[in-house]
Amino acid sequence: MRFLALASAAVLGVLTISSGSVGQKPDNQINPTSLTFEKRGEAALAAGNLPAANDALEAAVVADPKNRAAFVSLAKVAQAQAMPGKAIRYYKNALLLEPNDLAALSGEGDALVQRGAVDRAKDNLARVQKLCGNATCPAATTLAAAIAKGPPAPVQTAQVTDKVPPKGQEATTPEKN
């Protein structure tokens, strides 16, 4: 009698696990709607229409969150909009789906350089080179060039001061180096 409860619990567990996997798609099958939105987004990105590209690619990710290429394209849109932090997040999402995606690793390294994290970008370059093997691959070449170029120059902003110049000297402001 003690074994009946244990056996029925085991059978119920096996049935629950097996029934959950019957209706699922394999990871390599992407929803066709997602692919359609992805193609629209990539076309808009190529045309330079960044808002339309962003909208279409976000729709592609919503239609199928396993669409790794849509995450990579979203990251490219974010980089084109000078938002490297957002791009890094999208590249991370793509790398969660496939840790050895060369495009995502290279793109993330480029975004890290834009952000000023050159050492982390060098780690990505080493990983890309290891995945490529001895052959030279475009992903490694592109990332190496971005690292060699270095981060963009910081944007200079106006100095804010709370001191009011004496009357008659408003036009002359001291320059700080």
In short:
The protein has a domain at 30-148: Alpha Horseshoe (Serine Threonine Protein Phosphatase 5, Tetratricopeptide repeat). The protein is built from 8 helices and no strands.
Describe what this molecule looks like in 3D.
Mean pLDDT is 79; it is low at 18-25. The chain is extended, with a radius of gyration of 25 Å. It contains 8 helices and no strands. The termini are far apart. The chain has a domain at 30-148: Tetratricopeptide repeat domain (Serine Threonine Protein Phosphatase 5, Tetratricopeptide repeat, Alpha Horseshoe), CATH 1.25.40. It has helices at residues 2-22, 32-47, 50-63, 68-80, 84-97, 102-115, 118-132, 138-149. Helices cover 67% and strands 0% of the residues. The protein has 177 residues and is an all-alpha fold.
Largest beta-sheet characterization: none
Query: Strand percentage, roughly?
Result: under 5%
In N-to-C order, the SSE pattern is HHHHHHHH
Q: How is the CATH topology of the domain at 30-148 named?
A: Serine Threonine Protein Phosphatase 5, Tetratricopeptide repeat
Structural class: mainly alpha
Q: What's the CATH first level of the domain at 30-148?
A: Mainly Alpha
Can you identify the CATH superfamily of the domain at 30-148? Answer: Tetratricopeptide repeat domain
What low-confidence regions span 5 or more consecutive residues with pLDDT below 50?
18-25
How large is the radius of gyration?
25 Å
CATH architectural designation of the domain at 30-148? Alpha Horseshoe
- The helix content, as a percent range, equals 55-70%
Distance between the termini: 86 Å
* Total number of helices: 8
Please count the beta strands (DSSP E, at least 2 residues each): 0
Mean pLDDT: 79
- Shape designation: extended
